[in-house]
Each structure stands twice: as structure tokens, then as C-alpha cells.
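Sequence in, structure out. Go.
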Amino acid sequence: MKGSQIETLFLHFKGSLLGRTVNHVKAVDGVSFTIYEGETVSIVGESGCGKSTTGRAILRLDEPTSGEVEFNGEDLLALNKSQMRKKRKDLQIIFQDPYASINPRQTVRQILDEALEIQNVVPREERDAYIRELMQRVGLGAHQIDRFPHEFSGGQRQRIGIARALSVNPKLIICDEAVSALDVSIQAQVINLLKQLQKDFKLTYLFISHDLGVVRHISDRVIVMYLGRIVEIADKKSLFENTQHPYTKALLSAIPVPDPKRKKDRIILKGDVPSPIDPPTGCRIHTRCPFATDKCKEEVPELRATEFMNEGHLAACHYMEEIKAGQRTPNY
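Output:
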């Protein structure tokens, strides 16, 4: 099956002082997963967990330290700048901030025409009709193509960003917090638009978000990250109904319930997220996990399945079986 294979991806940023490297920020630390053609894979986690950096590393907007990013059988990290520029036609991104991600000095026509010019998607004489059709596809009027970004609302600007990503006929689109800056009602419209475009153009999405409610609506599979590493990965149904990792359970417990009479048990993780400059040894969440032992401090848990997990459901916890059986209780 076609798609993208990410293998042991590392991205460490150098911290320097007076021209000398003094530390490394381990933003992405050995991440491996697959994105199959036509599906939506979501990455979730707290701020600073490395989810956006993973997306940027796949596109080489930030150069990975090491690893492999295979896209339809071709290793993107082996391409030179010229080759990668041509490959970007198939790989696009929708950024979080619709105010900062488009040029305020260009009209919508110029914004979209620039992408078409660089990638030579359609002949120049056909571009006007192509841009007008794109505008209609994302829910904007063709008569708006000569307006500037400040003449649009936030939701409309994000639709322009979607049109720009869509303009070069990509195969994979990375949605980096694409709806988090929008009002809730506008979020729903944009998510429905993304789902419709995926169906119409057979797109593949890597959807990066901290909003598990949104992720539940749009995803096929979900990856949970913490401090640069994957702690759980599963199809959407399995992850939400058969959660295994204590960190994932804590995230799910924070989803608001739209019923004031219904009580929900919150799992509050103690402490703050450690620094990625000097992450904890062993299991990285052991400093906050209510089930942590000395083993968690010393040994890195592998992503693995157990007999009570569906195929493709993996989690990185030493004590999944014991927690499931009620043989291990929280130590707070």
C-alpha cells in the first residue's frame, strides 16, 4: 500500500553559547510510524511534545538529525534541495495561524498564482479559471480573488491557506493545528471542508492537534506523543475505548463533557512537563505517572501490544497488563 513510512526520526536542535554547542533540545527522539494513502493520522499531546516538529521534519522545513522519511518508496532525506523542491508539489502544509501564514501584501490571486508558477501546475492562460474554481472549492467566492488578506475573517483566511495547499494537487497534507486558532463554530465548518476535500481529491492527512474532540471526529488512527516519543498508537475506536497508556488516559479525561449533570473523573498528572534539553531517563513520563516504579526510571518501555489490544494498537508502558487487571494502584 502506498503511503509514507517514518523510521527512527530524530530532530535535535543545538543550543549554543558564544559560538559553542552547549546542549541539545531533543524535540523528536526516535519516532516511527506509517501513514497509509487516503487515511487521516492524527498526532496529539501537550504543548512541547514534538508533534508539530515531527510534521515539519517530515517536510524538511526543519532538517532532521537522522532517520528515514519514505514517501511512496522514495527517501525524502536523501534528496538534494532541488529535488526536494520538486517533491514539495506532493507534500503541503496548512499552518496554525491564518493571520501569519499568508502574505498580507499579496492579493488572493497572487498568493495562489505564486504556488502555481513555482510548481508549473497549469498553463498561465488557464490560471485565472483554475484559481476561481479553487476559491469555490474551499467555500469562498470567485469574486474575492483580488482582495487582500485583511479583508477576510480568520476562518476565511484559513480557507485561503487550504486553497494554497490544494492548488498544486498534493498527495499528503500536514494540518498543523489547522483549526485551533478558529472559533468553535468555524472549526466545525473547516473540519467538514477538509473531510470533503479528502474525499474529492483522495488526499492523505497528517493532522496535528491538542484537541482530542476534534481528533476523534476526523481521524482514522491516532498517535499520542510525550517529550519527543510515541507513547501510544491505535485506530481511533481502539484508542478512545480501550486506552492503555496512563498518559493517554489523563489526556482523555480532560475532554469536556457537554452535560453539566454528568460527573467525570479527572486524572491530574502531577508536576510539569520536564525540559526536552534534559529529559528523564527510562520512561519519560515516570516523573508524573501515578504508577511509576524504579523500573520506569531506569528502563525505556518499548511500544508493544498485549492480548487485550486490537491489531495495530501499541503502547509504551511496563505495566499495562497489571493496570488493566487492577493489580497496580496509583501511588499518590
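Check: Residues 108-166 form one domain. The chain is about 30% helix and 20% strand.
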